[in-house]
Amino acid sequence: MISIKKIDLSQAILTNLVKIQQSEKLTDIKIITGEDKTVFSFHKLVLALRSTYFLNYFEKYEFQDQSPAEIYCKQIETETFRYLHNFFYTGMCDVNIHNGVKLMKQCYMLQIVDLKEQIADYLSQNLTDDNVAGFLNASLRYKE
Description:
By secondary structure, the protein is mainly α.
């Protein structure tokens, strides 16, 4: 008999998840954003794991025969959501002083707490005379 030690699958799962996301295989929901109605294909499980908003949304349909195949989010800016789409699958997000406040707003709305906190830390470390008023305003609007 052989005793198998606990195998860390986290890296393998993440790598395969990115491959599945890139191929759009097995996606079961589409998020449509912005005025231009850009479509992002997702796996509900990924959305639910990353966003409390989506977790609560999908739980409403847990005992129903059918849940929506699309969610139209007109108030979500498409370019900003591209960063979140990448984050949902890879855990990485390119944040800078130009997109940070917009990303924080989306994180606040979609209840993506871990990313929102990291963006807040980044913005607070990159304050300048030119951006302090805008960052302060955003921090007051999107703090929990």
